[in-house]
Write a structure and sequence with these properties.
The complex is a heterodimer. By secondary structure, chain A is mainly alpha-helical. Chain A has a domain of 58 residues: Cytochrome Bc1 Complex, Chain D, domain 2 (Orthogonal Bundle). Chain A is globular and about 35 Å long. Chain A starts with 9 loop residues before the first helix and ends in a 6-residue tail after the last helix. The N terminus of chain A is likely disordered. Chain B folds into 5 domains: 97 residues, Uridine Diphospho-n-acetylenolpyruvylglucosamine Reductase, domain 2 (2-Layer Sandwich), CATH 3.30.43; 124 residues, 2-Layer Sandwich (Uridine Diphospho-n-acetylenolpyruvylglucosamine Reductase, domain 3); 80 residues, Elongation Factor G (Translational Gtpase), domain 3 (Alpha-Beta Plaits), CATH 3.30.70.870; 104 residues, Vanillyl-alcohol Oxidase, Chain A, domain 3 (3-Layer(aba) Sandwich); 41 residues, Orthogonal Bundle (Vanillyl-alcohol Oxidase, Chain A, domain 4). Helices cover 32% and strands 17% of the residues of chain B. Chain B contains 15 helices and 20 strands. A 5-stranded antiparallel β-sheet of chain B has the order 5-6-10-8-9. Chain B has a 4-stranded mixed β-sheet with strand order 1-2-4-3. In chain B, α1 packs antiparallel against α3. Classes of the chains: A mainly alpha, B alpha+beta. Chains A and B meet through α4 of A and loops of B.
Chain lengths: 119, 531
């Protein structure tokens, strides 16, 4: 076989993802899942998206007009959007493999980051 | 299902089944959705046919599983591309060089086997990141520091094997290693140094063992799969101090670096030092016709005299460098005093006192500390990426002299000019002492999802490799896309070194399954096609 697959551009994906942000989330994540997601988030996401100086993900979102820029403070993220970002990357954020963040860990991150969404 | 080049579909299917038995079905990835996660997030071939795509990925959890995976690959002659954490972004990430290779993903091998804060060493597996080891040490209150490269999510083993560098006195990561465990292409296992002695008590304490020292061939190589590696760590210092030396004139760089050589090679200044230029980076200098990069990167920019005048008028030093000192506070204060004495021989030299830290520090205060100098991992470096969608690094080694820095500015400036690249878009990056006794210039190329821009960047990159080689300089490391290009310039005596590497490759990996093409070393069966 030949390997000629072209790749989807991250900015195109971003457009699709932003649209999904408008979809409300009704499922209430359970506390255990949220706690687990918090731990996974602290390990994999906080160094780039956390609070404090030197967090390039937070800084980049702020520069792009996102308010709040810290993911943990958002109330408009959806599970599909979060999964798209993690598995496809966006701008200089790379993709994450399943040996880094498994599907069930990704579900937990999504539960954590959507915990404060309006029910 | 994708199939590796030169492998029959039936054989590949059989191999997949055997890998699933060896590591468990959840850890063999064959769907496009899963395998595409291994492509280079910062690929310079985005949207192009040359963009490498793996055929599958296998993720063992133990060294025995690694042995099983390699044995199966050897039986069916399936090319494996080994990654540790796969976060070597800017140099190829988790993607293979040869499209269709199966990625051998060692991320799940994430055990910290031992950290000893009496003899100051660690023994780790390839999936252990700088973040992981830092947390391990902090959680246990151990009195050792690690040394970190800029991105903290990389693997200690992967980075050291790629001969990466950091910022503290232990900054040369391969040089800091002590002892390896390696799975060979036939699935056999060896330990290097004192590890070759059964029951050895000094595997992480004496590096060389007995007989020929082979560790080096497993760095930037494809002769085995490293499954454990020891590292010497820095005893947690009692203090840290920094101070900045500033000089006024362009030509002051020569004595500035001469003195730096003396201080660093005498171990009076420790860690990485970067030469910077407040003048050239200032708005004042940018206001001069052409800007500072024109002076640095192309003929006909503002003259040195013009820039020196701005420096005098606005009290801006032409050059500066921050010196780092580690040790008891009274010792580091004395080292700084001594450095100032030495630099005072340069007329007009001035000094900026940096802070002196009494250690240990409170882990709650890490955001207030100079993280890189303290071996605290972070991802801060990615903040420099602006609106690009990735980057790759051109990183030649040049002599640690002022004359060499001037020559590099001239040569690379001319090379950019000759290739028609606007000088202003290619700011010169100042040289750093990531490794003892030489300078590295790190020049980042942004990656975009734009075929033409990336194609042009690749052309310029190759032009710079050629220009560097013509002046006796070579890259210390490179992106997978340029491994053949860079290996080609290391050509002394009709490529004697490459031929030697190939002799080893043919002997230890006769079926050519391990990371084909890594750093220009191809197995015999693929060599002709690559020539």
């Amino acid at each position: 076989m030949t390997y000629t697959m072209t790749r989807q551009s991250k900015p195109i994906l971003l457009g699709a993802i932003l649209l999904t942000l408008a979809v409300p989330v009704f499922a209430a994540p359970d506390d255990v899942q949220v706690d687990r997601g918090h731990k996974v988030y602290d390990k994999w996401c906080f160094p780039c998206h956390g609070t404090g100086p030197g967090k390039p993900g937070t800084d980049s979102l702020r520069q792009r007009g996102q308010n709040p820029a810290v993911l943990e403070e958002r109330t408009d993220l959806t599970a599909p959007a979060i999964k798209q970002f993690v598995r496809h990357g966006v701008f200089f954020m790379p993709m994450f493999r399943k040996t880094e963040i498994s599907d069930s860990e990704l579900d937990a991150i999504a539960a954590y980051l959507t915990r404060n969404n309006k029910k | 299902m994708r199939v590796p080049p030169g492998v029959a579909a039936k054989d590949f299917s059989d191999a997949i089944k055997q890998w699933q038995e060896a590591v468990g079905p959840d850890w063999v990835f064959t769907s496009d959705e899963d395998v595409d996660l291994y492509r280079d997030s910062y690929s310079p071939f985005w949207h192009e046919e040359q963009d490498p795509i793996p055929s599958a990925a296998v993720a063992p959890h133990t060294v025995e599983q690694v042995q099983s995976v390699v044995r199966v690959a050897n039986e069916y002659e399936i090319p494996l591309w080994t990654i540790s954490t796969g976060k070597n972004l800017g140099y190829g990430g988790s993607a293979p060089l040869l499209s269709g290779s199966v990625v051998l993903d060692l991320k799940r091998m994430d055990r910290v086997v031992e950290v000893n804060d009496q003899n100051h060493y660690a023994l780790v597996e390839p999936g252990v990141s700088y973040f992981d080891l830092y947390r391990y040490i902090q959680d246990r209150g151990l009195k050792v520091w690690i040394d970190v490269p800029d991105p903290g999510w990389g693997s200690l083993i992967g980075n050291a094997l790629d001969r990466g560098g950091g910022y503290t006195p232990m900054r040369d990561h391969f040089d800091s290693h002590c002892g390896m465990e390696v799975v060979l292409a036939d699935g056999g296992i060896l330990r290097t140094g004192m590890g070759a002695l059964p029951g050895s008590k000094t595997w992480q304490q004496y590096r060389y063992g007995f007989g020929p020292f082979v560790d080096g061939i497993f760095s930037q190589g494809n002769f085995g799969v490293v499954t454990k590696m020891g590292f010497w760590l820095l005893p947690a210092p009692e203090g840290y101090k920094s101070g900045t030396v500033r000089v006024r004139r362009h030509d002051d760089l020569v004595p500035m670096i001469e003195t730096l050589n003396y201080l660093m090679n005498s171990n009076l200044v420790q860690g990485t030092t970067t030469i910077a230029s407040p003048l050239l980076m200032s708005r004042a200098a940018q206001g001069v016709s052409g800007g500072p990069s024109a002076l640095l990167m192309s003929p006909g920019g503002p003259s040195v005299e013009e820039l020196e005048k701005i420096g005098r008028d606005q009290n801006l030093p032409y050059w500066d460098c921050q010196l780092n000192f580690y040790g008891p506070t009274k010792v580091v204060e004395a080292q700084w005093q001594y450095a100032k004495e030495k630099y005072s021989a340069i007329p007009g030299a001035s000094f900026v006192e940096g802070p002196t830290y009494r250690l240990p520090y409170d882990p709650q205060d890490t955001d207030k500390l100079p993280k890189r100098q303290f071996g605290i991992p972070s991802l801060t470096i990615f903040g420099l990426m602006g609106r690009s969608e990735g980057h790759m690094w051109f990183s030649p080694i040049i002599p640690m002299t002022g004359e060499a820095v001037f020559e590099a500015q001239k040569v690379f400036g001319q090379a950019y000019h000759d290739m028609g690249v606007p000088a202003i878009s290619q700011l010169f990056v100042f040289p750093s002492s990531f490794f003892p006794r030489s300078f590295v210039i790190l020049c980042g190329f942004p990656i975009y999802h734009d075929v033409e821009k990336n194609r042009r960047s690749r052309e310029v990159f190759k032009g710079l490799v050629k220009a560097a080689a013509e002046h006796g300089w070579g890259e210390y490391r490179t992106h997978t896309a340029f491994m053949d290009t860079v290996a080609d310039v290391y050509s002394f005596n009709n490529h004697a070194l490459r031929r030697f590497h190939e002799t080893i490759k043919d002997a230890v990996d006769p079926n050519g399954i391990l990371s084909p093409g890594r750093c220009g070393v191809w197995p015999k069966r693929m060599r002709k096609a690559q020539a």
